[in-house]
Amino acid sequence: MDSNGSESVFTSPIFSIYAGPTGKQLYAHAAALSKSPMLCSIVEGEWKDSKECTISLEEWDEQTVEYLLQWLYFGHYTLCIPYEPTCVTSKRKATSTPSETNGEGSAGEQGPTAEQEFSEDEDFGDLPEHRRPLTPMRSIHCLGPHEGTVSSVQNLQKQGANHTAMFHFSTGNSLLPDAQVYTLAQYLQLDDLKRLAFYRIQDELVQYKLHIHGVLFLTKFVDLARYVYASTDWLAAYEEPMRKLVSTFVAVWFKHLNMPEFEELLSNGGDFVVDIARKIGRGIWNEEL
Which percentage of the chain shows pLDDT scores above 70? Predict the structure, then answer.
Protein backbone atom coordinates (compact mmCIF):
# COMPACT_ATOMS: atom_id res chain seq x y z
CA MET A 1 0.00 0.00 0.00
CA ASP A 2 1.13 3.57 -0.65
CA SER A 3 0.65 6.53 1.69
CA ASN A 4 -2.93 6.97 0.45
CA GLY A 5 -3.85 3.40 1.24
CA SER A 6 -4.05 2.29 -2.39
CA GLU A 7 -2.07 -0.50 -3.98
CA SER A 8 1.23 0.54 -5.53
CA VAL A 9 1.61 -0.02 -9.23
CA PHE A 10 4.80 -2.02 -8.73
CA THR A 11 3.40 -4.34 -6.07
CA SER A 12 0.25 -5.21 -8.00
CA PRO A 13 0.02 -8.51 -9.92
CA ILE A 14 1.80 -8.77 -13.25
CA PHE A 15 -0.25 -9.65 -16.33
CA SER A 16 1.02 -11.22 -19.54
CA ILE A 17 -0.22 -9.34 -22.61
CA TYR A 18 -0.19 -11.08 -25.97
CA ALA A 19 0.12 -8.53 -28.78
CA GLY A 20 0.07 -8.69 -32.55
CA PRO A 21 -0.55 -11.61 -34.89
CA THR A 22 2.54 -13.40 -33.54
CA GLY A 23 1.28 -13.11 -29.96
CA LYS A 24 4.37 -11.29 -28.68
CA GLN A 25 4.38 -11.52 -24.90
CA LEU A 26 4.58 -8.26 -22.97
CA TYR A 27 4.14 -7.62 -19.25
CA ALA A 28 2.39 -4.95 -17.22
CA HIS A 29 1.20 -4.43 -13.66
CA ALA A 30 -2.48 -4.75 -12.91
CA ALA A 31 -2.67 -1.28 -11.34
CA ALA A 32 -1.37 0.31 -14.57
CA LEU A 33 -3.74 -1.70 -16.76
CA SER A 34 -6.69 -0.69 -14.57
CA LYS A 35 -6.57 2.83 -16.02
CA SER A 36 -8.57 1.37 -18.90
CA PRO A 37 -12.18 0.50 -17.96
CA MET A 38 -12.10 -2.41 -20.38
CA LEU A 39 -8.83 -3.83 -19.08
CA CYS A 40 -9.90 -3.15 -15.50
CA SER A 41 -12.85 -5.52 -15.99
CA ILE A 42 -10.31 -8.27 -16.74
CA VAL A 43 -7.83 -7.32 -14.05
CA GLU A 44 -10.46 -7.16 -11.31
CA GLY A 45 -12.91 -9.70 -12.72
CA GLU A 46 -13.53 -13.39 -12.21
CA TRP A 47 -12.91 -14.40 -15.80
CA LYS A 48 -10.55 -17.14 -16.91
CA ASP A 49 -8.10 -14.48 -18.17
CA SER A 50 -8.37 -12.70 -14.80
CA LYS A 51 -7.35 -15.81 -12.90
CA GLU A 52 -4.56 -16.65 -15.36
CA CYS A 53 -3.36 -13.00 -15.45
CA THR A 54 -3.43 -12.86 -19.24
CA ILE A 55 -4.81 -10.31 -21.69
CA SER A 56 -5.10 -10.84 -25.44
CA LEU A 57 -4.55 -7.85 -27.73
CA GLU A 58 -3.49 -9.94 -30.70
CA GLU A 59 -5.68 -7.99 -33.12
CA TRP A 60 -3.53 -4.92 -32.46
CA ASP A 61 -0.04 -4.31 -33.80
CA GLU A 62 2.55 -5.20 -31.15
CA GLN A 63 4.34 -1.86 -31.50
CA THR A 64 1.07 -0.02 -30.88
CA VAL A 65 0.51 -2.08 -27.73
CA GLU A 66 4.01 -1.14 -26.56
CA TYR A 67 3.14 2.54 -27.04
CA LEU A 68 0.02 1.89 -24.95
CA LEU A 69 2.11 0.43 -22.13
CA GLN A 70 4.51 3.38 -22.29
CA TRP A 71 1.59 5.73 -21.80
CA LEU A 72 0.05 3.69 -18.98
CA TYR A 73 3.28 3.95 -16.98
CA PHE A 74 4.67 7.35 -17.97
CA GLY A 75 1.76 9.39 -19.38
CA HIS A 76 3.43 9.72 -22.80
CA TYR A 77 4.87 7.53 -25.53
CA THR A 78 7.83 7.84 -27.90
CA LEU A 79 7.48 6.53 -31.43
CA CYS A 80 10.07 4.19 -32.92
CA ILE A 81 10.10 5.44 -36.49
CA PRO A 82 12.88 5.37 -39.08
CA TYR A 83 14.49 8.54 -40.41
CA GLU A 84 13.70 9.29 -44.04
CA PRO A 85 15.01 12.32 -45.98
CA THR A 86 12.52 14.75 -47.48
CA CYS A 87 13.71 14.44 -51.08
CA VAL A 88 12.63 11.03 -52.34
CA THR A 89 11.46 9.45 -55.57
CA SER A 90 7.70 8.94 -55.73
CA LYS A 91 5.06 7.68 -58.11
CA ARG A 92 3.38 11.07 -57.75
CA LYS A 93 2.81 13.03 -60.94
CA ALA A 94 5.25 15.88 -61.45
CA THR A 95 3.98 18.96 -59.66
CA SER A 96 5.23 21.75 -57.43
CA THR A 97 4.47 22.26 -53.79
CA PRO A 98 2.77 25.45 -52.56
CA SER A 99 6.11 26.71 -51.27
CA GLU A 100 7.65 26.37 -54.72
CA THR A 101 4.96 27.90 -56.89
CA ASN A 102 2.38 30.65 -56.80
CA GLY A 103 -0.81 30.11 -58.75
CA GLU A 104 0.24 28.64 -62.11
CA GLY A 105 3.95 28.56 -61.42
CA SER A 106 5.33 31.85 -60.13
CA ALA A 107 7.46 31.72 -57.01
CA GLY A 108 6.37 32.82 -53.61
CA GLU A 109 3.21 31.02 -52.44
CA GLN A 110 3.54 29.63 -48.94
CA GLY A 111 0.28 27.68 -48.87
CA PRO A 112 -2.80 28.58 -46.78
CA THR A 113 -2.13 30.02 -43.36
CA ALA A 114 -4.21 29.44 -40.24
CA GLU A 115 -5.98 32.75 -40.85
CA GLN A 116 -6.52 32.27 -44.60
CA GLU A 117 -7.68 28.67 -44.54
CA PHE A 118 -11.30 29.02 -43.39
CA SER A 119 -13.24 31.15 -40.98
CA GLU A 120 -13.59 30.18 -37.32
CA ASP A 121 -16.74 28.39 -36.20
CA GLU A 122 -19.42 30.88 -35.24
CA ASP A 123 -23.11 30.82 -34.45
CA PHE A 124 -24.50 30.58 -37.97
CA GLY A 125 -28.10 30.30 -36.82
CA ASP A 126 -30.28 28.73 -39.51
CA LEU A 127 -27.61 28.89 -42.20
CA PRO A 128 -27.54 25.49 -43.99
CA GLU A 129 -24.50 23.36 -43.24
CA HIS A 130 -23.30 23.39 -46.85
CA ARG A 131 -23.03 27.20 -46.69
CA ARG A 132 -21.06 27.39 -43.45
CA PRO A 133 -17.29 28.08 -43.53
CA LEU A 134 -15.17 25.08 -42.61
CA THR A 135 -13.54 24.76 -39.21
CA PRO A 136 -9.76 25.49 -39.20
CA MET A 137 -7.77 22.35 -38.45
CA ARG A 138 -6.37 23.84 -35.24
CA SER A 139 -9.95 24.41 -34.01
CA ILE A 140 -11.04 20.78 -34.46
CA HIS A 141 -11.24 19.21 -31.00
CA CYS A 142 -11.26 15.68 -29.65
CA LEU A 143 -12.96 15.23 -26.26
CA GLY A 144 -12.53 18.92 -25.48
CA PRO A 145 -10.06 21.69 -26.43
CA HIS A 146 -6.30 21.16 -26.66
CA GLU A 147 -5.64 22.09 -23.01
CA GLY A 148 -3.21 20.76 -20.45
CA THR A 149 -0.69 19.73 -23.09
CA VAL A 150 1.54 21.95 -25.19
CA SER A 151 1.81 21.29 -28.90
CA SER A 152 5.19 20.58 -30.42
CA VAL A 153 5.15 23.91 -32.26
CA GLN A 154 4.34 25.81 -29.07
CA ASN A 155 7.08 23.94 -27.21
CA LEU A 156 9.65 24.99 -29.80
CA GLN A 157 8.43 28.57 -29.74
CA LYS A 158 8.76 28.68 -25.95
CA GLN A 159 12.27 27.32 -26.20
CA GLY A 160 13.16 29.95 -28.79
CA ALA A 161 13.97 27.22 -31.30
CA ASN A 162 13.94 27.59 -35.07
CA HIS A 163 11.11 25.14 -35.70
CA THR A 164 11.24 25.83 -39.42
CA ALA A 165 14.63 24.13 -39.54
CA MET A 166 13.79 21.47 -36.97
CA PHE A 167 10.75 20.24 -38.87
CA HIS A 168 12.34 20.50 -42.31
CA PHE A 169 12.94 16.74 -42.43
CA SER A 170 9.53 15.67 -41.10
CA THR A 171 8.11 13.21 -43.60
CA GLY A 172 4.90 12.21 -41.87
CA ASN A 173 6.27 8.95 -40.48
CA SER A 174 4.44 9.53 -37.19
CA LEU A 175 0.97 9.93 -38.72
CA LEU A 176 -0.03 6.26 -39.04
CA PRO A 177 1.50 5.08 -35.71
CA ASP A 178 -0.29 7.87 -33.85
CA ALA A 179 -3.56 6.96 -35.60
CA GLN A 180 -3.12 3.34 -34.51
CA VAL A 181 -2.64 4.53 -30.92
CA TYR A 182 -5.78 6.65 -31.31
CA THR A 183 -7.95 3.71 -32.35
CA LEU A 184 -6.51 1.42 -29.64
CA ALA A 185 -7.19 4.13 -27.04
CA GLN A 186 -10.74 4.42 -28.33
CA TYR A 187 -11.20 0.65 -28.08
CA LEU A 188 -9.87 0.59 -24.50
CA GLN A 189 -11.86 3.71 -23.48
CA LEU A 190 -8.72 5.69 -22.62
CA ASP A 191 -9.88 9.23 -23.37
CA ASP A 192 -6.64 10.95 -22.30
CA LEU A 193 -4.53 8.75 -24.57
CA LYS A 194 -7.00 9.22 -27.41
CA ARG A 195 -6.74 13.00 -27.04
CA LEU A 196 -2.95 12.86 -26.92
CA ALA A 197 -2.71 10.83 -30.14
CA PHE A 198 -5.27 13.07 -31.87
CA TYR A 199 -3.46 16.31 -31.05
CA ARG A 200 -0.10 14.86 -32.06
CA ILE A 201 -1.55 14.18 -35.51
CA GLN A 202 -3.23 17.58 -35.57
CA ASP A 203 0.13 19.26 -34.87
CA GLU A 204 1.72 17.42 -37.80
CA LEU A 205 -1.05 18.44 -40.20
CA VAL A 206 -1.10 22.05 -39.06
CA GLN A 207 2.68 22.24 -39.41
CA TYR A 208 2.31 21.13 -43.00
CA LYS A 209 0.48 24.38 -43.65
CA LEU A 210 3.48 26.29 -42.32
CA HIS A 211 6.40 24.16 -43.49
CA ILE A 212 6.20 22.08 -46.65
CA HIS A 213 7.81 18.69 -46.04
CA GLY A 214 7.74 17.27 -49.54
CA VAL A 215 6.02 14.52 -51.44
CA LEU A 216 6.66 11.80 -48.88
CA PHE A 217 4.54 13.59 -46.27
CA LEU A 218 1.53 13.47 -48.61
CA THR A 219 2.02 9.78 -49.36
CA LYS A 220 2.13 9.12 -45.61
CA PHE A 221 -1.00 11.23 -45.23
CA VAL A 222 -2.82 9.04 -47.77
CA ASP A 223 -1.90 6.02 -45.62
CA LEU A 224 -3.33 7.88 -42.63
CA ALA A 225 -6.58 8.71 -44.42
CA ARG A 226 -7.02 5.11 -45.60
CA TYR A 227 -6.48 3.76 -42.09
CA VAL A 228 -8.70 6.32 -40.33
CA TYR A 229 -11.70 5.63 -42.54
CA ALA A 230 -11.22 1.88 -42.26
CA SER A 231 -10.89 1.84 -38.47
CA THR A 232 -13.29 4.54 -37.23
CA ASP A 233 -17.06 4.63 -37.42
CA TRP A 234 -19.43 7.18 -38.87
CA LEU A 235 -21.27 8.90 -36.02
CA ALA A 236 -24.83 10.16 -36.44
CA ALA A 237 -24.64 12.72 -33.61
CA TYR A 238 -21.45 14.50 -34.71
CA GLU A 239 -18.52 14.16 -37.09
CA GLU A 240 -15.89 11.74 -35.79
CA PRO A 241 -12.94 14.00 -34.80
CA MET A 242 -10.18 12.16 -36.66
CA ARG A 243 -12.29 11.86 -39.81
CA LYS A 244 -13.07 15.57 -39.57
CA LEU A 245 -9.39 16.43 -39.23
CA VAL A 246 -8.35 14.23 -42.16
CA SER A 247 -11.10 15.39 -44.52
CA THR A 248 -10.44 19.05 -43.67
CA PHE A 249 -6.76 18.60 -44.54
CA VAL A 250 -7.81 17.13 -47.90
CA ALA A 251 -10.14 20.06 -48.56
CA VAL A 252 -7.28 22.51 -47.93
CA TRP A 253 -4.62 20.67 -49.96
CA PHE A 254 -6.79 18.89 -52.53
CA LYS A 255 -5.13 20.39 -55.62
CA HIS A 256 -1.71 19.17 -54.43
CA LEU A 257 -2.83 15.58 -53.82
CA ASN A 258 -2.61 14.64 -57.51
CA MET A 259 -0.88 11.33 -56.90
CA PRO A 260 -1.86 7.76 -57.85
CA GLU A 261 -2.14 6.71 -54.20
CA PHE A 262 -4.74 9.39 -53.51
CA GLU A 263 -6.65 8.71 -56.72
CA GLU A 264 -6.84 5.04 -55.77
CA LEU A 265 -8.28 5.98 -52.38
CA LEU A 266 -10.89 8.20 -54.04
CA SER A 267 -11.87 5.38 -56.40
CA ASN A 268 -12.93 3.29 -53.40
CA GLY A 269 -15.75 5.76 -52.68
CA GLY A 270 -17.47 5.47 -49.30
CA ASP A 271 -17.59 7.91 -46.40
CA PHE A 272 -14.20 9.41 -47.26
CA VAL A 273 -15.37 10.70 -50.64
CA VAL A 274 -18.66 11.95 -49.17
CA ASP A 275 -16.89 13.88 -46.42
CA ILE A 276 -14.34 15.61 -48.65
CA ALA A 277 -17.00 16.40 -51.28
CA ARG A 278 -19.04 18.18 -48.62
CA LYS A 279 -16.06 20.16 -47.37
CA ILE A 280 -14.78 21.13 -50.81
CA GLY A 281 -18.32 22.15 -51.71
CA ARG A 282 -18.52 24.38 -48.66
CA GLY A 283 -15.19 25.96 -49.58
CA ILE A 284 -16.39 26.66 -53.14
CA TRP A 285 -19.68 28.09 -51.88
CA ASN A 286 -17.94 30.54 -49.54
CA GLU A 287 -15.46 31.61 -52.23
CA GLU A 288 -18.36 32.51 -54.51
CA LEU A 289 -20.12 34.69 -51.94
Answer: 64
